[in-house]
Specification:
The complex is a heterodimer of chains A (237) and B (769). By secondary structure, chain A is α/β, with parallel strands linked by helices. Chain A has helices spanning 14-24, 68-77, 87-94, 151-159, 218-230; strands at 2-7, 28-33, 44-47, 81-85, 101-103, 111-119, 135-142, 146-148, 163-168, 187-191, 197-200. A nine-stranded mixed sheet of chain A has the order 2-1-3-4-11-10-9-6-7, sandwiched between helices. A two-stranded antiparallel ribbon of chain A has the order 5-8. In chain A, helix 2 links the parallel strand 3 and strand 4 (81-85). The model of chain A has no long low-confidence stretch (mean pLDDT 96). In chain B, 35% of the residues lie in helices and 23% in strands. Classes of the chains: A alpha/beta (237), B alpha+beta (769). The interface between A and B is large, with 41 and 39 residues.
Amino acid sequence: MNFAVLQFPASNCDQDAVHVLKNVLGHSVRLVWHKDLSLGSVDGVVVPGGFSYGDHLRTGAIARMSPIMQAVQQFAANGGTVLGICNGFQILCEAGLLPGALIRNRSLQFRCEHVYLKAATRRSGFTRAIPSGQVLRVPIAHGEGCYFADESTLKTLQAKDQILFQYTTAEGQITDAANPNGSLLNIAGICNERGNVAGLMPHPERASEGLMGSTDGRLVFEGWLQELAERKRPLAA
Amino acid sequence: MTEPAITPELVQKHGLTPEEFERIKTILGRSPNYTELGIFSVMWSEHCSYKNTRPLLKGFPTKSEKILVGAGEENAGIIDIGDGLAIAFKIESHNHPSAVEPFQGAATGVGGIIRDIFTMGARPICALNSLRFGDLTSAEVRRLFSGVVSGIAHYGNCFGIPTVAGEVYFDKSYEGNPLVNAFCLGVLRHEQIARGAAHGIGNPVFYVGPATGRDGLAGAAFASQDLTDESADQQRGAVQVGDPFMEKLVMEACLELLATGAVAGIQDMGAAGLTCSTCETAARAGTGIEIDLSKVPQRAPNMTPYEIMLSESQERMLIIVKKGREVEVQTIFDKWDLPWAEVGFVTDTGQMVVKNHGRLIVDIPARKLADEAPIYHRESREPAYLEAVRRFTLQGISDTTEPAQNLKALLGWPSIASKNWVYRQYDHMVRNGSVVYPGSDAAIVCIKEDSLPVLPDGTFGPKFKEKFIAMAVDCNAVYVYLDPYEGGKIAVAECARNLACSGAVPLGTTDNLNFGNPHNPEIFYQLRKSVEGLAEGCRAFNAPVTGGNVSLYNQNPNGAIDPTPTVAMVGLIENPAHITTQWFKDEGDIIVLLGEIIDDRDTLLGLGGSAYLQLIHGLKTGNPPRINLENEKKLHDGVRALITAGVVKSAHDCSDGGLAVALAECCISQQIARETPRLIGATVDLTEFGSLRSDALLFGETQSRIILSVSPTQLEAARTDALKLGLQFREIGVVGGDRLTIRGSQSNLSAQLTELHDPWWNAIARAMQ
């Protein structure tokens, strides 16, 4: 597959995404500069983590106005799959590609630690490779990861099976104590209604090699790759 | 605007003595003007010139066949790690700014050390820090502590560098004088080493990065004075304001530019800003430099030459570009939307010339300014308190009757307790290379292709086998206070021991000497003796000093800090199978003690200066434990050999809190995920040491001891190897269960692991609530 990993000023997990897609999973990856107007011919887009524009104004608020985001909007509108991780999730929310917002952690502090997650649905490409009921151990690293949306948006997310991941205990229970940031419904990741744009606060790319302490995050990429393989032709924007 | 007249008062206000002023007049052949006086004052401050410590620093070992750039040559030292790769690393203090404005003070400390690393052409890949605060019962101390930690988190997280290890101690001597020492390590290929020299007569000099403001005016001079009550208010303007977003862009742009080959020299504007970067680059190259301040981007209106030259606005770089290749600088910095300006050129005069709109402002011989600061051989006198320290005996100190309570208290003592409250605020995983996180003896980071700056062709260059860098930072300052020489040796030994336990071979050391006012002969004695100890330690472990930092005047009207020569050591692990962590792994494994159970030549049995005496008896006195560096080296070589032989499942050094705390840490320190520790018990039998005091046996801090766990099937192989290596190898217990039990002949210690984990894990968070 051919992936594009976007590069905004102060993206800082861009190389991590490239490393996993290229060196761990063996696919072709290109960094795409935020001022570019086109993604080129790609099968999937990663909006990586980091502090685009130094989180000035609000996380993701300036990055969503970068020229490349037009191309991402078009790519998504054509059905292309987009994965936003951490700051990427925040950017996709700001861009209106995903509903809701990510606000300050309830602890009011940055948190970097491994958490437990469960896939809330297996219908998405990003969750289909995860064995039913399996609890994943994946790190988070954010100060603004508390998922927030109004009542009706939450209802829609639930009704349309758009919640991808929820924070759980090691045993897979969705409890308040297992919630690291105060996210509503313990939401760690969601997708859009069509299912082709996803965002998650945990970092699956940091849990894709045994040496890094967990390989659970690979399942997210593997499901995505399966889905892309099933689509016969590459998409272009 | 008229400049102030140069009066003796003004000279004194600039921290210069009448003799220094005379020397300036001799150098210039005239009296300096106001701007020149400011320039001399910052360049001849301790922070920039090491005028009080240079003779001492000469005692450090600084050579090895692996050193590519040595101590004092450049902004950071560089060491060869094989396969054409190298690492650049250094530690630096930001103590005074953090005392006045903890968040920005600490943040810009991180920013400054990161710049020192990428200035060398290396990509910064991880950071460490060493922090000291007063007692957490004080609200002001809590404010400083939380401000410093969030400042470090803010800068490092946004920049995208993992903060992978560190140390934090709390002691009354740091009240009002916190220490913030920041370390950064970067990676590069040998051919990518950049130099901070203004080579090439006629080459243009570029200023890149954000505009210059009035922030951080004369910070280097401020850092070279005692802190007083007024300093907090008056000198807040000397604290810089950091922007990690800007630094990230400046770093990426500089690495991209260095790859083009268009750069003749590069230096960051850190302490003493534009002043230091211009005169040092010229001095290194033996050239001169001329700049015009009207071309320097300025953030505030009507800045005077004095202000522009002394500003320490952050994230700025000085780049000497090969003539004819200016456009490459412009293209790259425009791509990153960064300000740049051509501000001057390299000359053959040897002079640092500063003009403003063409009018001559400054004309100083660069080399004399940069390298010929006065050197002082300060008077040294043994501190009076040491006599009482040496007289101290255990007489009248009754042995413990409640060892389990003591252990819980020690584990919950903030200096020993888990620092998770701190490091969970740091992104310690970004860049996807952190193999061992904070919370084990040493952090371990993987060196892979994206650890490197790109080559001119945009690639990372030829493939290589991943390597692993281990790092630790240590200093038990109470030992140094009680015995500066022995304490200095122990600081190095503990750091090296942490590396050995993680499976690494030391490569080099960087040190941060934090002391009080060197004009006090007793303080200078602490400095002199501890540097001797440090130097001897570095020689013993073949870990030469590649650079570092000196921070003096860490004192306020209530007194000086404990002498704190912080040591950061870096080591290499070639094979990932040799990466070793401190926690016990499997039930049934045998617990082995390498080293003497207690040093019986020490009349205090390892309790002098111990955490136990401080916490349980309120005593900070007694001769600290002795160390024999030859034995210590044998221990390190031995544990590495056992690790390489594949017989070691865990290795943990005994330090603060002694054997009992070390054993408890082996049982409770593995963290699987949020709120999910992995607790694994142990039963230890020390009854064979019948006659010894329980407190000394459990909590004594005798040096040169390591706790291993070994599979029962490999026990004999391990023993045979260890004896061949000349190590003392003693089975002391078995891993398993949900308690830690230590049987002694005087008393038994037994506690549920959950009761040990709770105070250890939560003590700091509770103190901060």
